[in-house]
Design brief:
Length: 523
């Protein structure tokens, strides 16, 4: 692969994660590794291709560090924030910035992922000796161990398995490969418990007479458990099978970490693209291409929000968990998909497939399922609003505005698409318009409320029930739980004492709108 350059990094992470402040030698400067600044250790005398993260150094105080990096031939320095760095223009090295609240370890991981994707080294891990993927690794370990190999994650999902000819397997392995999942049983649970507590390879008997024994080992990175690797023992394992399995577990850990970094990078990029689509800071066609969508592919924005949390900290943590849950459900249904958390709301971009009405119904069902799962997992009520279907990616902002408006009229646990609550959202918009204009917010509705407050009457409630009932005194009386004559009497008194002309349809309409939207009354 080609060596990564500054331009490649900006193409992949440009936006909130990485911004260019200065590039005296252009964007074609190669970047081969990422270094974390250690204030207690000097910079290397020469480190061409290295990108230095200015950990612990304020941007406005980074001048000496940037000049030292230039003398060492570093590719560039990354600082937090956009504060001016004195002398940066003449330092002879590129200067880049990341968000002031960005976590350095996340920045390191993202940069390393992009550099690694271009075939450069980001750490001395001996990666060149690794097979290209887990299946190749499984075959290599199977040949060394002398038995069929399976690599699993923590969910006991089979990530890869060997295909070496002539290696016998049992029915349990065969079923696991077919379903890509280890069959569950209490005996299996006990085997995994013992395995996860072991420090090295472990020999396990078959859980039935038909099942062959296993040689197994956990896959770990440092102290973190990532999964496990299993060898079927037919009695012919190699003499050094345990050492071979130990080496295979170490190599599997590197591949799993690499895959995790790639997944994290993909999620970050898709989230950042969706954020920029939602706020209109990116050209829709370019975003569509990078998201793997056709520019004219119809899409819909779904918005999910918590209906309450005990504290702001609890709400922030719950919102992140909600993001993970929405992303998982969308990936399950649509594959790799764009989701992002903005101002406490989780947004997801849903593809519109088939007829518009059928797609809307399906999206509502999916959103409802996500809400129920989220409420069960988080123990906090959730609501979901879906915007109108946009005819292409250029309409994502409009669909997001629809979804936000729908969220505002929904209660805890409610799910709706914009077309289902159009009347409620229209009244919300009208109410905000009326409240925002002094001349429109005035009118008889204020006189009615003031009269009721002073005299203890119920004219406002009577009027809204009568208007909601289509000016039918009988139906209004049922809503008020009074005799129809009492309702008619109140209406006559209100007209006479407050000067309201209920025979004028325009006055009736405006009075109803004001009582509904400004006074918040319902029949």
């Amino acid at each position: 692969m080609d060596t990564c350059t500054l331009g490649n990094l900006l193409d992949a992470l440009g936006g909130s994660t990485l911004r260019l402040l200065a590039a005296p030698h252009g964007l074609a400067v190669p970047v081969t590794e990422v270094l974390l600044h250690d204030p207690h250790a000097p910079l290397p005398e020469r480190a061409p291709g290295a990108l230095l993260l200015a950990v612990g150094v304020r941007g406005e105080e980074a001048g000496p560090l940037v000049r030292a990096a230039g003398r060492a031939g570093l590719a560039g320095v990354v600082v937090r924030g956009d504060a001016p760095v004195p002398g940066a223009e003449s330092a002879g090295t590129a200067l880049l910035a990341t968000d002031r609240d960005a976590a350095w370890h996340q920045v390191f991981q993202l940069l390393s992922s992009v550099i690694g994707a271009h075939g450069a080294r980001t750490a001395p891990l001996g990666e060149d000796a690794l097979p290209g993927d887990l299946f190749a690794l499984a075959n290599a370990v199977a040949a060394a161990v002398g038995g069929a190999i399976a690599v699993e994650d923590l969910g006991r999902q089979i990530l890869a398995y060997s295909t070496v000819p002539g290696q016998p397997v049992d029915e349990t392995r065969r079923q696991g490969i077919l379903g890509r999942q280890v069959p569950g049983s209490p005996e299996n649970d006990e085997d995994y418990r013992v395995l996860y507590a072991a420090n090295g390879p472990l020999r396990l008997d078959g859980i039935s007479a038909e099942e062959l024994p296993r040689l197994a080992m956990t896959v770990r990175a440092g102290g973190e458990l990532l999964g496990s690797i299993w060898a079927v023992d037919t009695g012919g394992l190699a003499a050094d099978a345990e050492d071979a399995l130990r080496q295979g577990a170490s190599a599997a850990a590197m591949l799993l970490l690499r895959a995790r970094a790639a997944d994290e990078l993909a999620r970050h990029l898709s989230s950042d693209l969706l954020r920029r689509l939602l706020d209109g800071s990116i050209e829709p066609g370019a975003a569509a291409h990078r998201l793997g969508l056709a520019p004219d592919a119809p899409v819909r924005v779904a918005a999910f929000a918590l209906a309450g949390a005990a504290t702001a900290q609890d709400g922030g943590q719950a919102a992140l968990r909600l993001l993970d849950l929405v992303r998982l459900q969308c990936q399950t249904r649509y594959g790799q998909h764009a989701c992002v958390l903005l101002d406490g709301v989780v947004y997801a971009l849903l593809p519109v497939v088939g007829a518009a009405d059928h797609a809307a119904d399906r999206h509502v069902r999916i959103a409802d399922d996500i809400v129920r799962r989220a409420e069960e997992a988080l123990r906090i009520p959730v609501r979901a609003g879906l915007g109108h279907a946009a005819p292409g990616v250029a309409g994502v902002r409009d669909s997001r505005e629809d979804a936000d408006l729908v969220l505002r009229v929904l209660g805890a646990g409610e799910v709706a698409e914009a077309g289902q609550v159009r009347e409620r959202t229209s009244l919300l918009v009208l109410g905000e318009f009326l409240a925002g204009r002094r001349d429109q917010a005035a009118g008889p509705w204020r006189d009615v409320l003031a009269y009721d407050a002073e005299h203890g009457t119920e004219y406002a409630r009577t009027l809204i029930c009568w208007l909601d009932a289509g000016c039918d005194a009988g139906r209004a009386a049922q809503l008020l739980v009074v005799h129809p004559n009492t309702c008619r009497y109140r209406l006559r008194k209100a007209q006479r004492q407050l000067g309201i002309d209920l025979d004028d349809p325009d006055q009736r309409l405006v009075l109803w709108l004001q009582l509904r939207t400004l006074a918040g009354l319902r029949g």
